[in-house]
Write a structure and sequence with these properties.
Length: about 325
């Protein structure tokens, strides 16, 4: 029988990944005035190179997608990388950033329901009960803000794209592993952003990036893309999308902590209350049940989903 520490061990990579994602909020501010598509193209191209190097050092080699796998991976890149970034940038023009953040914080509910279905399992009652608690805590941390109809639409798109980043990986994780999914998502994202960059910003837009913006792109490429992607997909593959989805509630906590560390302000009472609520929800939802400790880890891992002949995972 597994010990509590052992049952939480598979969650550590995903937790670290969400900490990196949350801490990136402060870094991303440096790119507000940068050519968006070009900066993202450089980010994902650099991340691809880093991932290939790290994969070789880890003794693994990404395999070529086949059949339907191209659709899953292309869909992941289009929604989880390109449309998500566009939705966030366009959304903040119509809504306060907190509105977009709160929408994205609702991801645990979506993953708690749809993730297990993609993995051919029934949604966990434990996760379904914990997901709204995590969302409520994230709302308290991030607050609410002013918006209009367009802002709501962009927020909804951001939510869908954030969920797609995990869900569309589920059918291909089995054959491609977290390394392969991360590599293919990154190079596809780089190509898509490069096309948008050249057509919308010009072929020389990269020359407009300042030294600080290059540093921000480097941070995002190494830690928030190359490292965080592999960490996140490793946990999804091990414990399933539904249970891993609760960890997205850690991102706003990391963002609040990073904001404090960088001097943007000490969290107020509602933020501290939200942190407590998120921690409570995570503790309840991530606590391994007796069945899981007895050997349900195989069921929690995504089943191989349809590729050209069968199926895939996160």
């Amino acid at each position: 029988m597994d010990t509590p520490s052992a049952s939480f061990a598979p969650l550590v990579p995903g937790t670290l990944g969400m900490v990196l994602v949350g801490s990136s909020v402060s870094v991303s501010h440096a790119l507000v005035d940068a050519p968006l598509f070009t900066a993202q193209a450089v980010r994902y191209a650099a991340a691809t190179a880093i991932l290939l190097l790290l994969a070789r050092l880890a003794g693994t080699r990404p395999v070529r997608p086949r059949g339907r796998e191209w659709l899953w991976l292309a869909g992941l890149a289009v929604t989880g990388l390109v449309l998500f970034n566009v939705a966030v940038v366009r959304g903040v023009a119509h809504a306060e950033p907190a509105v977009i953040a709160v929408a994205v914080a609702s991801v645990p509910v979506v993953l708690g329901v749809l993730g297990p279905l993609l993995e051919r399992r029934a949604p966990s009652r434990q996760v379904l009960l914990a997901a709204p608690v995590v969302v409520a805590g994230a709302v308290l941390v991030e607050g609410t803000g002013r918006t209009d109809a367009a802002g709501v639409a962009w927020a909804a798109l951001a939510l869908g794209c954030e969920a797609a980043f995990t869900l569309l990986a589920v059918p291909v994780l089995g054959r491609h592993t977290p390394w392969g999914v991360s590599v293919h998502a990154s190079w596809l994202g780089a190509v898509l952003f490069a096309v948008l960059g050249v057509t919308r910003e010009g072929s020389t837009a990269a020359g407009e990036l300042t030294r600080a913006q290059w540093a921000a792109v480097g941070y995002l490429a190494l830690l928030v893309t190359a490292v965080a992607f592999v960490l996140w997909y490793s946990t999804v593959r091990t414990v399933g999308a539904g249970r891993a989805g609760l960890l997205t509630g850690i991102a706003p906590l990391a963002a609040a902590a990073a904001g404090t560390a960088t001097g943007t302000g000490v969290p107020g009472p509602s933020v501290w209350l939200g942190i407590a609520v998120v921690i409570g929800g995570l503790a309840g939802g991530l606590r391994a049940s007796r069945a899981h400790r007895a050997g349900d880890s195989v069921d929690a891992a995504p089943r191989t989903a349809p590729s050209s002949t069968s199926a895939r995972s996160r």
